[in-house]
Specification:
Distance between the termini of chain B: 70 Å
CATH architecture of the largest domain in chain B: 3-Layer(aba) Sandwich
CATH class of the largest domain in chain B: Alpha Beta
Shape of chain B: globular
Strand content of chain A: under 5%
Structural class of chain A: mainly alpha
Mean pLDDT of chain A: 85
Strand order of the largest sheet of chain B: 7-8-6-9
CATH superfamily of the largest domain in chain B: Periplasmic binding protein-like II
Low-confidence stretches of chain A: 1-22
Strand content of chain B: 5-15%
CATH topology of chain A: MetI-like fold
Helix content of chain A: over 70%
Helix content of chain B: 25-40%
Radius of gyration of chain A: 23 Å
Radius of gyration of chain B: 23 Å
Largest sheet of chain A: none
Order of helices and strands of chain A: HHHHHHHHHHHHH
Low-confidence stretches of chain B: 1-30
Order of helices and strands of chain B: HHEHEHEHEEEEHHHEHEEHHHEHH
Number of strands of chain A: 0
Number of strands of chain B: 11
Largest interface: A-B, 38 and 42 residues
Mean pLDDT of chain B: 88
Oligomer: heterodimer
Structural class of chain B: alpha+beta
CATH class of chain A: Mainly Alpha
CATH superfamily of chain A: MetI-like
Largest sheet of chain B: 4 strands, mixed
């Protein structure tokens, strides 16, 4: 799995052979390029152009100014906070699960857990929100059982329909996603290295501190950035769980471009989207760096 | 003296012009009538009369409607009746979409998929006036001028009132917004969505503001009401959708009263009895929605026929279930035999824009018993009051509710 995710990054890192060495671009990739053009490059350029235009079509930078203060700034802070919290929880818990599965689960169990992780990591949107509302809403089964046992979560300040609640729900796909992307890295941690460390008189702790952590950190960090990008930009789940009480950038963009109330601020939404793209580019640059460093250890 | 002179002049001039105009009209009628351009004809007469309009619409065969939910103000009945009466196919694209989607569809959809008629929030109509064709329905004079374009490019069509919707058998029966702060309603109250995104929720804030003694110029008392409701745990920030209701995430919703008849019927099928009531301390009628025909409508004759239908006043006509076969009848005979669109909206719980005129003529049917409005003088916030509220909500709403 990590080989798969690592592959494009290493291609980029090795660099340019695709175009400079005179290789003809394989025809087989044309659909891929068409896909990228239609669903990535075109929308990005469209959003970029809209963000630089006013309502009467004039060029302006005024759409970016409101992002430096007030509610839009708060929204970026909240979205980044949500991305970081869920990425951190997902990364730590997911890495732990990955470690346990990799070291203690048999082959069959591993296969089953892999499939389960793949399913959970890809669940999201309205169905996911509804699953949690039905299980952890104010009058839901789990909450009522806990209440029966004397633990009233809602009386103690918990609410599913808050930033905490959204972060809680996001963990549901972040943790298994971490398992999926991080487990192959653990596989790359060779038994021989541990034996070598032992034979040179290193303790378990030495192995962890001097070998395991430095080798694994880049891929741990890279995976966390991947999780961050997911948590930062998710839309439908949060939208199905809140009524504007959690100011997240994707929700505000939705309000500006597809609402029934605010009619003339679609370009403002485009400017916020450009802001999100910038954050994502920064995160993905870190991811590419991490992948490059990781591949150093995994190259054969 | 001077006024009288001007008046006299006006009378003299009009006296000179009127015969000239009518003479021109009669000489045109004597000649063979020019073919009608349905994309630009601006009244039923200019479109060649009802028989010709129905024929042209039937020739087009289809009407593209967008974002009309069947349960919303009884649009389902209107669409079924129109289809059965005239045999015109109805394409209702993206029934749960937003006003912004409708405007987008006019601007960017391929010609054959463009909407023929839209029902949008008022700011969307005002901001996009040039997208719409000028068309005055036969009963144009009965449409209040307050929320309409004088050329008929866009006209108010119906409005709703904010109602409480709740299941039977709650520990207490909610009757007012102020009463919702009762501890008996802990964890029960919800609204449809984000008030900066959903008109219904924006009006719910205005209703709470009214119940808290605030004037529509400043909704901060309404925001404070929600803030307090959140603090005491009665307001849950989950969107009031049927799925979330079924899961028990909330019990009492604030909604447009014209969503009540369908919601009540749907729930009854699932064995849950719910009912609606207008809160006794807030009679809030929303700004009317706006009907408009896009200038680039792919089926301009069908669009105009549908528009005439939705603004027709007949209060005793056939409904889908009772309408006999219409084959062989003239367009105007069919049109005059079916229930008018205005009273179909009434049957869905909405207040049609011609309500006052219809009531004066004794042609306004009774609304369904489930949504009978409370007594009192309803308030409708103006567009500028709404804009002020939106600006305040954009910053204050997330702030007061985030914790």
């Amino acid at each position: 799995m990590i080989e798969k995710t690592a592959a494009p990054a290493t291609k980029v890192a090795e660099g340019r052979s695709l175009f400079l060495k005179g290789d003809s671009v394989p025809i087989a990739l044309l659909p891929f390029f068409a896909f990228v053009t239609f669903f990535l490059l075109w929308p990005i350029s469209d959003v970029l152009i809209k963000s630089l235009k006013g309502n009467s079509g004039e060029w302006t930078l005024s759409n970016f100014e409101p992002m430096t203060h007030g509610i839009y700034l708060t929204a970026f802070q909240t979205s980044i906070e949500l991305g970081l919290i869920t990425a951190f929880i997902g990364a730590v818990v997911g890495a732990f699960f990955a470690f346990v599965i990799e070291n203690y689960a048999g082959r069959k169990l591993t296969a089953v857990l892999d499939s389960i992780s793949a399913v959970f990591a890809n669940s999201g949107g309205v169905p996911l929100a509804f699953m949690f509302i039905a299980s952890f809403g104010a009058n839901s089964a789990v909450i009522r059982i806990l209440r029966g046992m004397g633990l009233d979560l809602y009386a103690n300040g918990f609410s599913l329909f808050s930033l905490t609640g959204v972060a809680f729900v996001y963990s549901f796909f972040q943790i298994p996603l971490m398992v999926l992307v991080f487990k192959p890295a653990l596989k790359g941690l060779r038994k021989e290295w541990r034996e070598a460390s032992m034979s040179l008189g290193g303790s378990n702790w030495d192995f962890i501190r001097r070998i395991a952590v430095p080798v694994l950190f880049p891929s741990f960090f890279g995976s966390m950035l991947l999780l961050f990008a997911g948590g930062f930009s998710a839309y439908a789940t949060a939208r199905a769980m809140t009524v504007g009480n959690v100011p997240l950038v994707p929700l505000i963009i939705g309000t500006l471009v597809d609402g029934n109330v605010i009619a003339n601020k679609a370009n403002q939404g485009a400017a916020l989207a450009v802001g999100m793209i910038l954050v994502a580019v920064i995160a993905m640059t870190g991811y590419v760096w991490a992948q490059r460093t990781t591949s150093k250890w995994q190259a054969r | 003296m001077r006024k009288q002179f001007v008046l006299g002049l006006v009378v003299a001039i009009s006296a000179a012009i009127v015969p000239a105009v009518s003479m021109e009209a009669s000489s045109a009628a004597a000649k063979k009538p020019a073919p009608v351009n349905y994309a630009t004809c601006a009244s039923l007469a200019a479109c060649g009369g009802m028989d010709a309009l129905v024929k042209a619409a039937q020739k087009e065969g289809t009407i593209n409607l967008v974002t009309l939910p069947r349960g919303w103000a009884n649009y389902g009945e209107a669409m079924d009746l129109f289809h059965k009466a005239f045999g015109i196919k109805i394409v209702d694209d993206n029934p749960d979409g937003s006003s912004a989607y409708e405007i987008n569809a006019i601007e960017t959809a391929p010609q054959s998929k463009k909407p023929d008629w839209v029902d949008v929030g008022i700011t969307y109509a005002q901001n996009n006036e040039n997208l719409f064709a000028a068309y005055k329905v036969v009963n144009f004079k009965d449409i209040p001028t307050k929320f309409s374009n004088p050329d008929g490019r866009w006209t108010s069509d119906y409005a709703g009132e904010i109602a409480l919707i709740y299941p039977l058998g709650l520990p207490k029966t909610p009757t007012s917004l102020a009463g919702l702060t009762d501890p008996a309603f802990k964890g029960m109250v919800a609204i449809g969505g984000d008030p900066t995104s959903a008109q219904e929720s924006l009006m719910s804030v205005f209703a709470a503001n009214m119940a808290s003694g605030g004037a529509p110029d400043d909704v901060s008392k309404g925001i404070a009401w929600f803030s307090n409701m959140k603090k005491i745990g009665n307001f849950v920030t989950v969107p009031a959708t049927p799925a979330n209701f079924a899961s028990g995430a909330y019990k009492i919703g604030l909604t447009w009263n014209y969503n009540c008849p369908d919601a009540i019927a749907t729930s009854a099928k699932a064995g849950v009895k719910i009912q609606c009531a207008i809160p006794s301390d807030a009679q809030l009628v929303g700004t009317p929605y706006i009907a408009a025909i896009p200038a680039n409508a792919p089926h301009p004759a069908a669009a105009r026929l549908w528009n005439e239908f939705m603004y027709s006043q007949n209060n005793k006509g056939f409904l889908t279930a009772t309408l006999p076969s219409t084959s062989g009848k003239t367009g105007s005979a069919i049109f005059n035999s079916i229930m008018g669109g205005q009273n179909i909206w009434v049957s869905g719980g909405a207040v049609p824009t011609m309500a006052v005129a219809l009531a004066a003529k004794g042609m306004l049917n009774d609304p369904p018993a489930s949504v009978l409005p409370a007594k009192g003088t309803p308030v409708t916030p103006t567009v500028s009051q709404q804009n002020a509220a939106k600006a305040l909500l954009a910053t204050e709403w997330p702030k007061v509710l985030s914790n």
